Automatic annotation (TrEMBL):
Membrane topology according to the record: Multi-pass membrane protein
Protein name as catalogued: Uncharacterized MFS-type transporter YbfB
Sequence intervals crossing the membrane: 62-79, 85-107, 119-139, 151-172, 219-242, 254-277, 289-311, 350-368, 380-407, 413-434
PANTHER family: EG:103B4.3 PROTEIN-RELATED, MONOCARBOXYLATE TRANSPORTER
Length: 453
C-alpha cells in the first residue's frame, strides 16, 4: 500500500510540473504532452513483459529492483536540461520501472495471498495510490512554489529510495508458502495424512498460458473498458492542473490541493468498491464505477461552459486564441455569480468533479484485477493483467497527446474533455454485459475441473 502510494503518487503529480517546466524551457502544451504520453505508453508496453518475469521468476526481486530504478529516475528529473533528457528519463526509464513497482504487479502479488476477500484487499493496495496523490501532489506543488520544480523532483525520488525500498526489502515475499502459510493466512494442513488440501475448482476459462485468454469474451470486454479508463484517467492526470490554473484561474497550490483531494477520495472509492464487489458481483460495481465517472465528466464540461470559462474575468471571450468583447445582451450572456463557500461555477465544477471522480478513479483497478483472476486463474495473471494494463496505457497515451494538440489548436480543454467523457458510456455497457455468473469461478456449482495450487 505504501509502495503504491509513493510510486504512483509521484508519477501522477506530473501535472504539477507542466507549467513551470514549460515556462523555463519554452515548451508548448503539445511538446510536454508528448513526453508525458510516451511515458504512459511505455508503462503499458513494458507491463506485460515485466508481468511475465513476475509470473516466471522471483517477483520480490522484480519489485525491489524496479523501486530502486524508479527512485533514482525520479530524483534525476531534477537535472533536466533538454527535452530529449526528459523523454529518456521520464518516458522510458521511470515509466519502465513503474511497470514493476506499481499496482500492475502488486495486485497479482496480493492475489496469491488472499482469496476470500481478494477484491477488498486489492482495493486497499489501490487506495495507496490515492493516499499518495492526496499527500504528494499538494506537497509537490508546495515545494515548486516554495523552492523550485527541481527540488520537488529530488524530494519525490528520495521518498521512494529511502522509505519505500527498505520497506519492500523487509516485508515483501513471493508467496504465502515462503512463510509456511496458505492464502488468507490459513495454516498448512497436517502432514500426518489426516487431512489433505481441498481440491480447487477450475473456472470455465481458466488458463495456463496467457495467449489462451484471448479466445474468450471477458478479456475483450475488460480490456475495452480498461482502455477507456486509461483515456479518462491519463488526460486528467496531466491536464487537470494546467486547466485549473489557466482556464479557471486558481493558483498552482489550490489546483494541486483539489487534484490531491480527488486522488485522496480514491481511498474510499477503492476500498468501498472492493467491499461492494465482494458482495454484489464484480461486473455490476465495475459498470457503475464507469457510469459515475461519466457523470463527473459532465460536471467538468459544465464548468468549461460556465460564465467564467466562456467569459474570463466576466467580460471577454478568450476562446480558441480569439479575444473579443462579450456582448452583454448576447444569448449566452448571464450575470456573474458565485456559489457560497466554493466560488465561481468554474471553481465549483473542479470541486464537484474531484468528489465524483475521486470515488470512481481507482475503484476500477482492484475490481478488474479480481474479476480477471476469477475468470482466468492465477498462473498467468500478472501477464494477462499486464496486457489489459497496456490497453489502459494506450488509451492514456492517446488522450494525453490529443488533449495537448487540441489545446494548442483551440485554446481550450472543452473538446478533449468532452471526447474522453463520452467514451465512458460504452465502457460502462461493456462492463455490465460481462456474464460473470457463467464465467467466474466464484459462481461455479459444478466443477469444470480441478487444479492444484
Amino acid at each position: 500500500m505504501f509502495i503504491a502510494a509513493v510510486t504512483t503518487g509521484a508519477r501522477n503529480g506530473f501535472g504539477v510540473f507542466v507549467l513551470p517546466m514549460s515556462e523555463e524551457f519554452e515548451w508548448n502544451r503539445t511538446t510536454i504532452s508528448v513526453a508525458a504520453g510516451i511515458g504512459w505508453l511505455m508503462n503499458g508496453v513494458t507491463q506485460p513483459f515485466i508481468g511475465h518475469l513476475f509470473d516466471k521468476f522471483n517477483s520480490r526481486k522484480v519489485v525491489l529492483i524496479s523501486l530502486l530504478i524508479a527512485g533514482l529516475a525520479t530524483a534525476g528529473l531534477s537535472l533536466t536540461f533538454h527535452y530529449l533528457f526528459l523523454v529518456f528519463l521520464f518516458s522510458f526509464v521511470l515509466s519502465t520501472a513503474m511497470s514493476g513497482a506499481s499496482i500492475g504487479t502488486l495486485g497479482p502479488l496480493l492475489a496469491r495471498w488472499f482469496v476470500k476477500r481478494r477484491t477488498f484487499v486489492l482495493g486497499l493496495v489501490a487506495s495507496g495510490t490515492s493516499i499518495g496523490g492526496l499527500i504528494l501532489i499538494p506537497f509537490s506543488a508546495y515545494l515548486v512554489e516554495l523552492f523550485s520544480w527541481r527540488a520537488s523532483w529530488i524530494a519525490l525520488g528520495a521518498i521512494v529510495i529511502f522509505l519505500a525500498l527498505p520497506l519492500g526489502f523487509l516485508f515483501i515475499r513471493n508467496s504465502p508458502a515462503q512463510m509456511g502459510l496458505l492464502p488468507d493466512g490459513d495454516p498448512e494442513p497436517p502432514t500426518d495424512g489426516t487431512a489433505a488440501p481441498p481440491a480447487r475448482r477450475r473456472g470455465m476459462f481458466e488458463v495456463d498460458q496467457w495467449r489462451q485468454s484471448f479466445r474468450s469474451p471477458p478479456i475483450w470486454n475488460l480490456s475495452a473498458a480498461y482502455t477507456v479508463c486509461g483515456v479518462t484517467v491519463g488526460i486528467i492526470s496531466i491536464h487537470f492542473v494546467p486547466y485549473a490554473q489557466e482556464q479557471v484561474g486558481v493558483s498552482l497550490r489550490m489546483a494541486g490541493l483539489i487534484f490531491g483531494i480527488l486522488t485522496g477520495l480514491n481511498v474510499m472509492g477503492a476500498i468501498g468498491g472492493g467491499w461492494l464487489a465482494d458482495r454484489f458481483g464484480r461486473k455490476n460495481v465495475l459498470g457503475t464505477v464507469y457510469a459515475v465517472r461519466g457523470i463527473a465528466y459532465l460536471v467538468l464540461i459544465g464548468g468549461l461552459l460556465s460564465i467564467d470559462a466562456i467569459f474570463p474575468g466576466g467580460g471577454e471571450v478568450g476562446y480558441g486564441g480569439v479575444s473579443a468583447a462579450a456582448d452583454p445582451s448576447g444569448p449566452f450572456r448571464v450575470d456573474k455569480f458565485t456559489i457560497p463557500f466554493i466560488g465561481s461555477p468554474g471553481v465549483a465544477s473542479l470541486w464537484f468533479f474531484a468528489i465524483l471522480a475521486g470515488f470512481s478513479w481507482i475503484a476500477s483497478v482492484p475490481i478488474t484485477t479480481s474479476l480477471t483472476a476469477e475468470v482466468y486463474g492465477l498462473r498467468a495473471l500478472a501477464t494477462i493483467s499486464g496486457i489489459s494494463f497496456l490497453c489502459h496505457q494506450v488509451g492514456a497515451f492517446v488522450s494525453i497527446i490529443l488533449a495537448g494538440l487540441l489545446y494548442d489548436w483551440t485554446g481550450s480543454y472543452l473538446l478533449p474533455f468532452a471526447l474522453a467523457g463520452s467514451l465512458l458510456v460504452p465502457a460502462s455497457i461493456a462492463a455490465y454485459t460481462i456474464n460473470e455468473k457463467k464465467y467466474s469461478v466464484r459462481y461455479q456449482t459444478v466443477q469444470a475441473g480441478v487444479a492444484a495450487d
